[in-house]
Design a protein that fits this description.
It contains 13 helices and 14 strands. By secondary structure, the chain is an alpha/beta fold. It has 2 domains: 4-62 and 126-135 and 180-319, Rossmann fold; 139-170, no CATH class. The strands form 4 sheets. A 7-stranded parallel beta sheet has the order 5-2-1-9-10-13-14, with helices on both faces. Strands 7-6-8 form a 3-stranded antiparallel beta sheet. A hairpin with a 2-residue loop joins β3 and β4. α1 (12-24) packs parallel to α2. The longest helix is centred in the last third of the chain and has 22 residues, at 298-319. The model has no long low-confidence stretch (mean pLDDT 97). The structure holds ligand FO1. Ligand FO1 binds next to α2 and α6.
């Protein structure tokens, strides 16, 4: 019975549903593919924010207040770096620093990012396969309405998402290869569904879907591609997705997100607060599940995962 799930995740929102899926599925039924367009080299270290947010969340060591880095973090390194006049705009906590140093050490030894990620996950006791979308360098660049092009972390952290955006580019995407195991999971006869977690459509999900071969593999598969709306009641739960939609001239609605994904997905998970948009989204040719998508507790994460998996189950029987 086709039951393998591939989840596509960015940072916080995606990590929450990834955790829900990891708790209701066996490790061999799930693989999580994380965006690496946010990655960058900083202070000589390779930083992989979305991989780390998902990894820390699955390892239950994530900092729930910040949405990134580790719980119980201390900042001795950063304070000392500040005293030396070093760059401290991108805050690296002491525990989090160990991850960046170990990742950079393993990368410098010649290991590819997917192998390094598997090694870090093994050390942290994370059993669910976590893959970077690619082992190659892809960097999300942000075009601003003032004509500047910013690296993602300069836009997101240094400039606090203040610049008005006009578009994005994923530098290096044309020659990047999906990570080992990504395409084979999409072409696996056991694939039950691809679940696009509620992450930022533009800078967390689009880079993954733009990788050569990924969309084609998804569209050639009989398994449905289902996106969970990151917009509830006209707001993004965290991050700049709503602000970006406004600046891109899109309606800040779940239907706006469905429209953005329309010809790349088969199903859409809509929050019950936006039920009035169901028919508008179905008119795009999408099947819609209406449910609670706000994840405040661990139970909420599991409940949403079960609801989406139920939607997937129903898909096959409906098709048959
Ligand atoms: N986000 C911030 O807003 N400020 C920071 O100082 C910051 C540091 C940081 C360190 C490690 C890491 O993995 C993520 C970090 N983030 C920080 C989040 C990062 O910018 C991510 O790209 C976003 O969470 C979007 O995915």
């Amino acid at each position: 019975m086709a039951s393998r799930i591939v989840a596509i995740s960015g940072g916080v929102g995606g990590a929450k549903l990834s955790l829900g899926l990891a708790r209701v599925l066996d490790p061999d039924q799930l693989a999580i593919v994380a965006n690496t367009g946010d990655d960058f080299d900083h202070l000589g270290l390779r930083i992989c924010p979305d991989l780390d947010t998902v990894m820390y969340t699955l390892a239950d060591v994530n900092n729930k207040e910040l949405g990134w880095g580790q719980v119980g973090e201390t900042w001795q390194f950063l304070d000392a770096l500040e005293k030396l006049g070093g760059e401290t705009w991108f805050r690296l906590g002491d525990r989090d620093l160990a991850t960046h140093i170990q990742r950079t050490t393993l990368l410098r030894s010649g290991q590819r990012l997917s192998a390094v990620t598997a090694s870090l996950c093994a050390q942290l006791g994370v059993e669910v396969p976590l893959l970077p979308m690619t082992d190659d360098d892809v960097r999300t660049m942000v075009f601003t309405q003032s004509g500047e092009t910013l690296s993602f972390q300069h836009y997101f952290v240094r400039d606090r998402c203040a610049p008005r955006v006009s578009g994005f580019e994923f530098a290096g995407i044309e020659t990047a290869a999906p990570a080992p195991g990504f395409i084979s999971r999409l072409t696996d006869i056991e694939l039950g569904a691809v679940i696009i977690c509620p992450s930022n459509p533009f800078v967390s999900v689009d880079p993954v879907l733009a990788l050569p071969g990924v969309l084609e593999a998804m569209q050639n598969s009989s398994a449905p591609v289902i996106a969970v709306s990151p917009i509830i009641g006209g707001e993004a739960i965290k991050g700049p997705a709503a602000k970006m939609m406004a600046e891109l001239g899109m309606p800040i609605t779940a239907a706006g997100v469905a429209e953005h994904y329309a010809d790349r997905i088969d199903g859409f998970v809509l929050d019950h607060r936006d039920v009035q948009m169901q028919s508008q989204i179905e008119a795009l040719g999408l099947k819609v599940l209406v449910t609670e998508t706000l994840m405040r507790s661990l139970e909420d994460r599991e409940a949403l995962a079960k609801a989406v998996l139920g939607f997937v189950e129903g898909w096959r029987t409906r098709q048959v």
